[in-house]
Amino acid sequence: MISVLPGVVSAQDVITPDLAVRSALQNHPLMKAATFEVDAKKYAEKAAFNLPNPEVNAESPTGTFYAVGVLQSFEFPTVYLRQKQVARAETALARAGQTVSENDLRYAVRSLYLELQTAESQGLQWAFRDSLYQAVFNAAERQFAAGEIDLLQKTIVANEAGNIHQERLAAEQLTSALRSQLMLLTGLTEFGKLLPLFADTAGLATLSGPLANPGLAYEKQTAQLAEQQIGLAKSKALPSFSLGYMNQGTRDTPIDYRFRASVGIPLWAGQYRVGINAARVDSEAANARAEAKSRALAMDNQRIGMEVRSALNLLRYYEQEALPRSRILIEASLRMREAGQIDYVTFLRTLDEAFAVQRDYVAQIEAFENARIQLLYLAGQ
């Protein structure tokens, strides 16, 4: 009834948290969308060298014949280099966003898996308690028929047994709903047994710090992209060029004099300066967001670390003291009730206190596991 340590089960029937996570990463639409976004950014890299379309024209410069010409404009070569760098930075940002989505999905699957584990564990407790209280209620009915107890005690037992039965039904419904949600999240059409709820203390010391968090990596990559945008804005303030071919003279004009060239002078420097300043401010804002994210992660890491230590201390207390006492209370109250040494009111109150300890123990395991999952999330694992 109160055991929460994993038992010996067939491996092929068990859905572990890692298996659920792998299935979600393979089947969830968000992961497919993130992959498509990365592919789209890769294609955008190839479009970084985007020359404008050449102009083909025909005109009569001398009024005696039509001359066909072509004109090709292009930016300063640095612009194309900067555009390529920006495109690569956007691809890296898309990959960082993909990692963030993966980490968020892992966290969601593990949290829902833990919630289902807790619901199943509580459901087993309610099932045992319901069976016990039904037996107590049957005994109380026999005693009432024999005149050994009064109507008040029988009614109290019936009311308590009915409440416990409703709690069992609610726990079963919750378990079924959570199982359906987990199947939908992971994309599994069949969902076998879960690992029993237990406190997984292995590997806590090996968790890396929040510097590996994908959210922080995303903010840093955003800052790098903003830095590249500054360089692109500066390069756009450089001259542009155009080269062309057209015969502006007579038919016998030498080839050497049929070419044309022009330089676009960035005369309106104010508009370029505004663009550069805007890019620089965006870069400073991105760096500030990255710093804020780093501090927030450090604070979360400290807070959750304290929660883990506190939950571990409570678990040791429950395992070493509270749970053994709850077992003693249940066994002693059952013996005393059978011997007629206590009435049903005291008996039921004692059982309620003993079972409350077991529910609190499950809640402490859930709190510890929830904190451990949050540490994994902060570490990007």
Outline the fold blueprint.
Layout: E1 14-15, H1 17-27, H2 29-46, E2 55-59, E3 67-74, H3 77-145, H4 151-186, E4 193-194, H5 214-235, E5 240-245, E6 259-264, H6 269-338, H7 344-378
Parallel strand pairs: 1-4
Antiparallel strand pairs: 2-3, 3-5, 5-6
Helix pairs in contact: 1-3, 2-3, 3-4, 3-5, 3-7, 5-6, 6-7
Helix coverage percent of residues? 55-70%
Separation of the first and last Cα atoms: 33 Å
Q: Please state the average pLDDT score.
A: 87
CATH topology: Outer membrane efflux proteins (OEP)
Q: What pattern of helices and strands is seen along the backbone?
A: EHHEEHHEHEEHH
Q: Widest sheet: strand order?
A: 2-3-5-6
Low-confidence stretches: 1-11
| Name given to the CATH homologous superfamily | Outer membrane efflux proteins (OEP)
Supply the number of helical segments: 7
Number of strands: 6
Q: What share of the residues does DSSP label as strand, in percent?
A: 5-15%
Structural class: alpha+beta
Indicate the CATH class.
Mainly Alpha
Estimate the global geometry from the Cα principal axes: rod-shaped
Annotated CATH architecture: Up-down Bundle
Give the tally of structural domains: 1
Largest sheet: 4 strands, antiparallel
Characterization of the model:
This protein has helices at residues 17-27, 29-46, 77-145, 151-186, 214-235, 269-338, 344-378, and strands at 14-15, 55-59, 67-74, 193-194, 240-245, 259-264. It is of the alpha+beta class. It has a single domain (12-378), classed as Outer membrane efflux proteins (OEP) (Up-down Bundle). A 4-stranded antiparallel beta sheet has the order 2-3-5-6, with no helix packed on it. Helix 3 packs antiparallel against helix 7. The longest helix is centred in the C-terminal third of the chain and has 70 residues, at 269-338. It starts with 13 loop residues before the first strand and ends with a helix.
